[in-house]
Design brief:
The structure holds two protein chains of two kinds. By secondary structure, chain A is α+β, with helices and mostly antiparallel strands. Chain A is about 45% helix and about 20% strand. Chain A has 13 helices and ten strands. Chain A has a seven-stranded mixed beta sheet, with helices on both faces. A three-stranded antiparallel beta sheet of chain A has the order 2-4-3. Chain A starts with a helix and ends with a helix. Chain B is α+β, with helices and mostly antiparallel strands. The termini of chain B are far apart. About 5% of the residues of chain B have low confidence. Classes of the chains: A alpha+beta, B alpha+beta. At the A-B interface, helix 5, strand 1, strand 3, strand 4 and strand 5 of A face helix 8, helix 11, helix 13, helix 14 and strand 28 of B.
């Protein structure tokens, strides 16, 4: 066979292979084509075997063309093979595809009670300025709940709070405030004292805005030099930290038997920033608690010399603070104990 | 207390009175900053345009409705056409003067009046009741106007409604403001003027030419330090003039005839209670102020018979008590339409005595309200004089007897010329605000409190007799701060004069730790009420509950001895709304009456026979596993309910975290109820546990080991199948299981645990368990399947395996349990073994043999094929 014939055969073969590979549809077909065009019994092998019969001048030329054809076919085959493999893997993976918007496997959406959350937060806020937490019993002796707090028997100030009494034990009451903890603290610790006392309290009153059971947090600071302006500063600090906003605090004259001077504490409404809205009944201010300088009579009842020591005290309702913080409009929600209501606070619980 | 703005304005000259009415909103808004809380303010004329006086000329039955009347109303005095109005009130009658809202009127509550047809009959407006006019909360029938009302006149004019009523909520210290005069003093300060005191008849005790027909003897001189009486003769207790009636009506009083109305008027005007007796009903011509004798009776004005005691101060005649002093008069001696002579009482009583009586007899009157808070001693004479003048003007008083005044000059309640010093340095230190002496003087003077400069920093203040709240220097500090304005107090921050430790009491911290542990296990915190009902208490027949003396309702009559009732109530509420899966906890105080023990939850504190202990409880209800789209729909576990072991696992976790006494087990034990029933000592510690609600064979007591078999600290139990329906209030066709858990966080126990945890406590290192270093050798697993007798306890088996396997045992898992037909049970365990070096087959075999041998020896356990 002449060189020309061989070259023509090679070029023809190349064209055939390109066409066949182009039409191949699977890795299996590619494998078949590899055997057909490149195998031991293929035409290409046959052509290569003929090179020996060519002259020494023609042989390199034939070899060059032959190799080019073989390389081309090899490349086409492996290129095609690779793309088929990728496609086949993709379709296999595609089969395992999930809808990523389906819900994940989660734990139940649990939460602490909002009253607990508020208590913890306030404890931290006051803890940061050196206030420790003290607790006391919920059934109290009238000495701690009333007498020591300058609320004598047969005085109208006892009627300020509707008290639950223990049957057959007129000296025991369900504490009406957490102030008895202040008395216990002042009796057991030496000044300087900085404590807060959160806890459950009871009053015989039940309507849309009163619950017979609720929670308070009270603060107490006793030292040699204490003033009402410092009280105002501490309350202002608390409001800013708790609500995370620059809300002003104002005091209004009031009366509590255990403080003198006494004041109601208002803060700028956090919903309207003082502009007036439904929550603050258009006044721009909401009441959050009571406070004052500890009455000298109270100091005497805990054996502290009122000429040497002074102090201030303040108290707030935890439910009230939670209502203001979370925008809850009904006090009863706290005690109706609906898991779905409570779960909404889960993001603050962790 | 109610204040009429119109009346208040009368305390000032015309110009200032006018200013007050014009600027009432501004003035009222300032009162809270003086410590006078305004609960509400109501402009009476609001909504009463186009509301006029009408006269009922005819009232015929509606042709189609028995209860309705078709009225012909005259709206003008001239004989113009009558207006036809259909009225449903039963009291409408011919000849009545009524209030007519004309078409176009918009009554309070945005109630629009227009022409209409009522059952086919034309109606041109509405005849109004008091409540429709916004003058009363409720009322029966239409309002009947007095004869004197002018037909056609606007109702605002006819009823004197061009007024505004303030409802003040006064703190108990401000008794001086329980009158129009008192409020006028504070308001006067805002108007920069002073109120004028109403005119009085000059009364002089012991004046010559005056004869006392009735004499006064005060026996209880401490309880009644000042008692004045005045006989008024020849008066007519007629119907009060309209202005007086109306004035009292606006303040919430019904008219009771001129005599009583005058005393009520003075009460609201000057704040001093007065009482008028019918002098002809005073037996023996003598008034005696004394304490009652036990068992003496008094029928009060409102027809209630009181049984008096020797702590009740009474006004008596020679025979019997005629009034409960300072609280309420007696019916028999009360004035009536025919009264000709009255004995007028004006007195000062000890506040505590009055309060005790008022409370004992559960009477709250305008008089007791004021006496309890303290009245102005100077008011005794002034008020009697004021009333005498009004009696002259209104009742045609002909003559009066001598003014009798019995005073106990030694009484602390009659201290006159009260002088206090105010040290401005003290003011500055306490309030934290600098003030000039002149400014403080000016503030006091504006309120009519005379004050002067005593020395450089000290003011001399004369306390007026009506300011009973100003008794100490600290009270003056508050008064000065109040008058200057709390808003002027600067904001400061307390200095940390000492290093203060920010530590929290152990108990409170521990509670929050438990809360967090339960939270991460998926339980939400609930706060049910601490009260339980008598019915609920019956489920704990051996518990001594703390009962309330004055419960709000029978449902809340006792303090909870256990959290179970609250947890079950919440479960019921969830079932009620179709929320069948729930997991929640409660943590709080429970109470037990221990009359013979002086115990308390506060360490070191004796609380008089009430035990208050902290409990943590939780309830798991419904399906244990959350539904998920991916779950194997055939798996038998998928729909299982929460059961004993879900709850027990949480308790074990809790115990493990709360205590490191014995590694994961936290030292607690679970004792089945059957065994507990056989142990009387253990049972006696269960009075707070609702055993009858628990499944007897799927529940356990939680016991903390210690002296005498340990102490019961709680329970874990599935609800009794027979009690579930009721306890959870399950609707028909629904069955749910719930597991109830409660642990007593016994303070002593916690303290013990704290001691063990504290790093500085003298505790042997063993308490912390032996800490093994990590090993790189492969773990070998061997499974063992054995058959045990029914009585073999899993806890004992685990303990035996652990002990027999020795240190090579890394973990022991209980893989399987199934009961066999012959009553025995098959248990499978997996031993995971690891040591510092790779275990040979022989070594592994030796361990397994050791374990099997030991189990065989102890329980007769046979290996299963």
């Amino acid at each position: 066979m002449s060189l020309t014939t061989l070259v023509e055969k090679l070029e023809k073969l190349s064209a055939q292979a390109v066409a066949a590979i182009e039409l191949a549809k699977s890795t299996k077909e590619i494998e078949d084509l590899r055997v057909q065009f490149m195998g031991k019994k293929s035409e290409l092998t046959e052509i290569f075997s003929q090179f020996g019969k060519l002259s020494a001048e023609e042989r390199p030329k034939a070899g060059q063309v032959g190799n080019e054809v073989r390389q081309k076919i090899t490349q086409l085959l492996s290129g095609k093979q690779e793309s088929f493999a990728t496609a086949e893997l993709n379709s296999k993976l595609k089969f395992e595809q999930v809808d990523v918007t389906l819900p994940g496997r989660m734990r139940p959406n649990a939460s602490l009670h909002p009253v607990t959350l508020v208590r913890l937060e306030l404890s931290k806020i006051f803890g940061d300025i050196g206030f420790t937490v003290e607790v006391g019993p919920e059934i109290e002796h009238e000495f701690y709940n009333f007498d020591a707090l300058n609320i004598p028997a047969n005085h109208p100030s006892r009627a300020l709070q509707d008290t639950f009494y223990v049957k057959d034990r007129k000296d025991l009451v369900l504490r009406t405030h957490t102030s008895p903890v202040q008395i216990r603290t002042m009796l057991s610790q030496k000044p300087p004292i900085r404590t807060i006392s959160p806890g459950r309290v009871y009053r015989a009153d039940y309507d849309a805005t009163h619950s017979p059971m609720f929670h308070q947090i009270e603060g107490l600071l006793v030292d040699k030099k204490v003033s009402m302006s410092e009280l105002k500063g501490v309350l202002s600090y608390m409001v800013k930290e708790f609500f995370g906003a620059e809300l002003k605090v104002r005091l209004r004259p009031s009366f509590f038997p255990f403080t003198e001077p006494s004041a109601e504490v208002d803060m700028e409404c956090r919903f309207c920033k003082g502009a007036g809205c439904k929550t603050c009944k258009g006044t721009g201010w909401v009441e959050i608690g009571g406070c004052g300088m500890i009455d000298p009579e109270v100091m005497k009842s805990v054996q502290l010399d009122p000429d040497e020591y002074r102090g201030f005290a303040f108290g707030m309702g935890l439910e009230r603070m939670a209502m203001l913080k979370f925008g809850i409009s009904d006090l009863r929600a706290f005690f109706e104990s609906d898991q779905k209501f409570i779960e909404q606070f889960s993001r603050w619980s962790r | 207390m109610k204040i009429s703005l119109k009346w208040l304005a009368e305390f000032f000259d015309e110009a200032h009175g006018k200013k007050l009415i014009e600027q009432s909103n501004v003035i009222r808004a300032q009162l809270p900053f003086l410590g006078l809380e305004v609960a509400s303010a109501k402009k009476l004329a609001e909504g009463l345009n186009q509301v006029v006086v009408g006269f009922v000329e005819k009232a015929d039955r509606h042709p189609d409705a028995d209860r309705l009347k078709v009225c012909q109303i005259r709206l003008k005095s001239s004989d113009e056409a009558l207006s036809q109005i259909v009225c449903g009130a039963s009291n409408v009658a011919v000849g009545m003067k009524v209030v007519v809202a004309l078409p176009g009127a918009v009554l309070p509550g945005d109630f629009k009046i227009s022409k209409s047809k009522i059952r086919g009959v034309e109606s041109n407006g509405m005849i109004c009741s008091e409540s429709e006019l916004g003058l009363a909360e409720s009322s029966e029938g239409i309002l009947a106007l007095p004869e004197s009302a002018v037909i056609g006149a606007p109702i605002v004019q006819a009823l004197g409604l061009n007024d505004e009523i303030w409802e003040l909520e006064l703190t108990p210290d401000r008794a001086d403001c329980l009158s129009h005069l008192g409020v006028a003093r504070e308001v006067g300060r805002l108007l920069s003027t002073k109120p004028t005191t109403p005119a009085v008849e000059l009364l002089e005790a012991g004046a010559k030419n005056e004869v006392a027909v009735i004499s006064v003897e005060v026996i209880a001189t401490d309880a009644a330090p000042s008692y004045a009486g005045l006989l008024l003769d020849g008066l007519q207790n007629q119907i009060s003039p309209d202005w007086l009636k109306r004035r009292l009506e606006l303040l919430g009083h019904r008219s009771h005839g001129a005599v009583v109305d005058i005393t009520n008027l003075v009460l609201h005007e000057l704040g001093h209670p007065l009482h008028a007796f019918d002098a002809d009903k005073i037996s023996g011509g003598k008034i005696i102020v004394r304490f009652a004798r036990d068992g003496e009776k008094l029928m009060t004005l409102d027809n209630v018979e009181l049984t008096l005691s020797r702590e009740d101060l009474v006004i008596a005649d020679l025979e019997k008590p005629v009034a409960l002093a300072g609280v309420m008069g007696g019916l028999e001696s009360s004035v009536g339409p025919n009264t000709k002579r009255i004995f007028l009482e004006s007195a000062l009583f000890d506040p505590a005595v009055i309060r005790k009586s008022a409370q004992r007899h559960k009477i709250h009157s305008d008089a007791s309200h004021r006496y309890e808070r303290g009245v102005d001693p100077a008011g005794v004479k002034r008020s009697a004089g004021r009333a005498a003048l009004l009696f002259k003007e209104i009742c045609g008083l002909k003559k009066r007897g001598a003014f009798l005044l019995v005073e106990n000059k030694k009484s602390p309640l009659l201290q006159k010329d009260h002088i206090l010093n105010l040290d401005l340095r003290a003011f500055q230190e306490i309030v934290g605000m600098e003030v000039a002496a002149e400014d403080v003087l000016e503030q006091f003077s504006k309120l009519g409190i005379p004050a002067s400069i005593k020395s450089a920093n000290v003011l001399r203040v004369e306390i007026p007799s009506h300011r009973l709240d100003l008794a100490r220097e600290i009270d003056l500090v508050e008064e000065a701060a109040r008058l200057i304005g709390y808003n002027k107090i600067p904001e400061d921050f307390p200095e940390l004069s000492h290093q203060l430790q920010s530590k929290t009491s152990g108990l409170a911290e521990r509670n929050d730790q438990i809360r967090n542990m339960l939270l991460v296990r998926g339980l939400s915190e609930m706060m049910p009420y601490s009260f339980i009902s008598d019915e609920e208490a019956k489920l704990l027949p051996n518990a001594q509950c703390v009962a309330l003396d004055n419960p709000l309702t029978a449902h809340w009559s006792k303090m909870r001895p256990s959290l179970a009732f609250g947890l079950l109530k919440i479960a019921r509420d969830h079932v009620g709304v179709g929320q069948h899966r729930a997991q929640f906890f409660d943590l709080g105080s429970c109470f037990a009456s221990k009359p013979n023990e002086k115990t308390s939850s506060v360490p070191g504190e004796k609380l008089y026979g009430v035990e208050e202990s902290l409990h943590a409880g939780f309830l798991l209800m419904g399906r244990a596993l959350l539904e998920h789209w991916s779950s194997d729909k055939k798996a038998s576990d998928r729909k299982r309910s929460f059961d004993f072991f879900d709850a027990k696992g949480i308790v074990e976790d809790l115990a493990g975290e709360l205590s490191i006494v014995d590694g994961r087990w936290g030292g607690i034990q679970f004792v089945d109820l059957e065994s507990a029933q056989k142990n009387p000592e253990m049972l006696s510690a269960c009075s707070w546990i609702p055993l009858s609600l628990l499944h007897p064979f799927r529940s356990a007591l939680v016991v903390f080991p210690g002296k005498g078999g340990g102490s019961v600290v709680g329970y874990v139990g599935e609800l009794h199948p027979e009690k579930r329906r009721e306890s959870l209030n399950l609707p028909k066709g629904l069955d749910l299981n719930a597991v109830l858990v409660e642990l007593k966080i016994v303070p002593d126990l916690l303290i013990e645990m704290n001691r063990l945890r504290a790093p500085d406590a003298k505790v042997s290192q063993q308490s912390y368990g032996k800490i093994k270093l990590s090993r790189r050798v492969p773990i070998v697993e061997r499974d063992l399947s054995l058959v045990f007798g029914a009585e073999a306890s899993a806890a004992e088996i685990s303990k035996t395996i652990t002990r027999a396997a020795g240190l090579e045992l890394l973990e022991l898992e209980c893989l399987d349990l199934f009961p066999m037909e012959n009553g025995k049970k098959s248990l499978a365990y997996r031993l995971r073994l690891q040591t510092e070096t790779t275990l040979s087959d022989e070594q592994i075999q030796a361990i397994v043999s050791r374990v099997s041998e030991e189990l065989k020896k102890k329980f007769g356990a046979e290996l299963r094929a």
